[in-house]
Predict the 3D structure of the following.
Amino acid sequence: MANLVIMESPPKANTVKSYLGSSYKVVASKGHIRDLPKSTLGIDIENDFEAHYINIRGKGDLIKDLKKEVKKADKVFLATDPDREGEAIAWHLVNALNIPPEKVKRVTFNAVTKSVVKESIKHPREIDMNVVNAQQARRILDRIVGYKLSPFLWKTVKSGLSAGRVQSVATRIIVERENEIRAFIPKEYWTIDVVVDTADNKSFESKFYGVVGDPNKVEIECEADAMKIYNAVAGNTFTVSDIKTGKKTKNPAPPFTTSTLQQEASRKLNFQSQRTMRVAQELYEGVNIGAEHGGVQGLITYMRTDSLRISEEAQLAAKNYILDKIGEKYYPSTPRVYKSKANAQDAHEAIRPSTEMIEPTAIKKHLTPDQFKLYKLIWDRFIASQMESAELSTTQIDLECAGYIFRTSGYTVKFPGYMALYEESTDDAKASDESNTRLPEVNVGDALTAESIVPNQHFTTPPPRYTEASLVKFLEEKGIGRPSTYTTIITIITTRGYVKRDGKALVPTSLGEVITKLMCENFPDIVDYKFTASMEDQLDNIESGDNSMLKVLNEFYDDFKGELDKALSNVSMSDIEVPAEETDIICENCGSKMIVKNGRFGKFAACPNYPTCKNTKPLTKSTEQPETKKPEIAPMKCELCGSDMVLRTGRYGSFYACTKYPECKFTKQKTRPLGVNCPECGSEIITKHGKNKTVFYSCSKYPECKFSSWDMPTKENCPVCGKMLFRKKGKNLLVCRTENCGFKKEISEPESEE
């Protein structure tokens, strides 16, 4: 074997394997194979922050296999992901596998397509140690903060807590927004809305704006002022005093970066950032889209980027598509070029469809629903970013009555341009709807009658809580974190219990608020926005070669150690009190509001007056309200007595039971169709539950057909023998169970929860 290619993920390796000839063997490291130890700090601070890496537990056999492959190869192409993490994995592979320097070839794929892969293999390079050191510096910084601060939290708050460098800042952002909401004092204001009719019986709405002769908008602060205006205009004619028309050009949004993809997928698709990045990873690594489209293809470019740059090849592909499929007038006179932000890493392009430019609808049947939705979103955004601007005709109409001005504005689309394909969403629903009114034709001097005049009382509202989309946007604007870290940040602060979800909103818990207060008082630099952003800049400088890893680590640790020593000597457990989380549940025994407690089996509601009152209630996971759900009536009758059946849960999972129990003890296990036919008789396969709710699969014709399987039958057939493939229980692995076949295939889709 002449050439060995090592990649990170098995699905991506399978895709690349199909592009390269028989002289290449493609294998996967399955992510990192070395890391810092979990049980100790793993950093020798006194010896220039030397990191003591160890092989990750459970990867011993994989490392042995990779070493064997390395020995047989003449060249070893390290094709891990094209970012800091990927560069570091490549470096770890060299050290862990003892790859001779003369064999090492580093290659990266911005898109996993045949042309890109073959071209990249032709132009290998050396491992970039500046990029590796930038990743190491981040890892060491995060390890020091986590392993030094966590014991401080154990001592002062409670055991089991952990702290993180960037995660602590993200928690602070959410806590401070919650404090803004609590401190907000609503202010009263009024509006007066009038609906007027034109001479040809068309109507439109206008709002009070101000006073004749005063160009400034007047705010109505109380009911008395509102009624004064209302009484003056009621029953009078409204005259069109001014009409202003104009033209407005609306430019398309640029192609996606990691941040904007997460934001838009949250707004348009209701995807959490973790879901967005998982699906984007699948699209990047490769999906089998059928032989008619070239088989396995990577459909998008690399999805961790903050660059807006696109290649000339991609520009040309978009141009040809727009001219051929949408129309010549929809393409601008010159190609659109977008400028990245000053601190953007420009190693990768923006997120766009890969060079094959395959339309989403053409391959919909080969994609999962999530893959199709996200691919279409990326496709539409990219094509729209290269299209002509939209032209809008704007209109503003002023009405005069009793010395007061009422104003309405709107626009009509003169030429849709890019809006024919795609329009960016916004977090502010009011802003997105503003001035979107289609107005009738009127002339200055027209007298209009009022159909209705309505004064309305309002109160100003506090700033909204952060959603994943708005938090990612804020982090990006402040330079906190990088594209590859946004999802991890949100996942960690929610799983640690510092932040919880309320619908789309992110809400701090009592624990999160206490820890934020403690961190702000004792470690102001760690949770300072500007300081955290400056650390990101320093990591970027290490990558570019403008700073050294040792210098950055030394400067950080000198200040951090001083803060830590001071905090440990000044703060004790008695200083900290974590308030209990209240519920809306009233204890029926003593009338107190019950609080949330954690037990062996999860959260439950408990009376705060324990041990005087020992009342407790179960909580549902989603609403944290007492469980009062009545058993669900089943769509069947008891086969013994004809009574209704209800759905219940037991040690073997869900089952149907007769409502006449215990007089009638008939039960029937709940099953559901899998959507796959039995390989033995062709009947439907159903999902069942065994002991301890373990899922297994059985033929619906049992006992006539005795087919059953712990592994999940699939619709895929073995490419070797043509028989059904099964998904191994608990593994991302498809296997053929035909004797003497032994075909196996690794997949990336997570196992569905039954």
